[in-house]
Amino acid sequence: MSGAGTPDFFYREAQRLGYVARSAFKLLQIQKKHKLIAPGSSVLDLGCAPGAWLQVACQSLGPLKNGGAVVGIDLKKVKVPPLYCDSRVQTVCADVMKLPKNQVRALSPRKGFSVVLSDMCPLVSGITTRDAALSAELGMQALGLAVGRAATAHLDEIRTDRLLNDSVCTADDNGILQPGGHLVIKLLESEDNKEFSRICKPLFRKASWLRPKATRSSSREIYLICQGLLS
Fold first, then answer.
1. Per the residue annotation, which of 33, 186, 201, 206 is the catalytic one?
2. What is the distance in angstroms between the CA of the first residue and the CA of the last residue of the chain?
3. Residue 97: which pLDDT band, with cuts at 50, 70 and 90?
């Protein structure tokens, strides 16, 4: 009952409650534990398809009168789910790996986001080391987008040729995450996870790992929760 695509408790609950995917419960647990999204937050959801995290993020903003915004970006064209989402949610079809920071920043009403969520995952090949490397590349892209050149300040001891690509080292020193903001990055379990911790801990007030209960037993997914970007 735990294999990929097999209906289980979280799948059935998603169907019952109107979430477009069981992955909603991953963000619900993250939100319940860490309370990253507050009323009025501006949230960026990287790899937003099929839209379950958009639903949870908008829910977490509270009533429409509270304000806030949710922007989802994905390689696929994603329709905003009608349930739990409102006019504060928009989606953009684009390749995050090629999207300049200034264009992403302009999507926020405040020229920056208070929460950046990355649920991006590579097309899994089944080759563990390859999949982990591709996951780390996506994770580093999310980190570089969020904090800018600050991500490179703690790379002395890690394999920069594998974790860091040219798009992180742009002329734009500043990331799109506001001071005090929060970042969530999905990764596949590998040795690179320790290196991500070494990068993030000096940049944030707190960095911790979480494997949500809704994660399938066969999955190697794990989330790095970074809270309170230091200015």
1. 186
2. 46
3. confident
DSSP string, 89-153: EEEEE--GGG--HHHHHTTSTTSSEEEEEE-------S-HHHHHHHHHHHHHHHHHHHHBGGGGT
Q: Is the pTM for the entire model greater than 0.85?
A: yes
Using CA atoms, how far apart are residues 64 and 61, in angstroms rounded to an integer?
8
pLDDT at 157: 44
Residue ranges and CATH numbers for the domains of the chain are 9-229 (3.40.50.150)
Beta bridge partners, 115, equal 43, 182
Task: Tell me if residue 76 is catalytic.
Answer: no
The rounded mean pLDDT for the chain is 88
Residue 187 token pair:
């990764």
Kindly state the average pLDDT of the residues 207-213: 96
Pick the residue with more confidence: 170 or 193? 193
Amino acid at residue number 176: I
Are 96 and 47 a contacting pair, CB within 8 Å?
Answer: yes
Give the model's pLDDT for residue 45. 98
What count of other Cβ atoms lies within 10 Å of the Cβ of residue 99? 17
Mean pLDDT of 111-135: 90
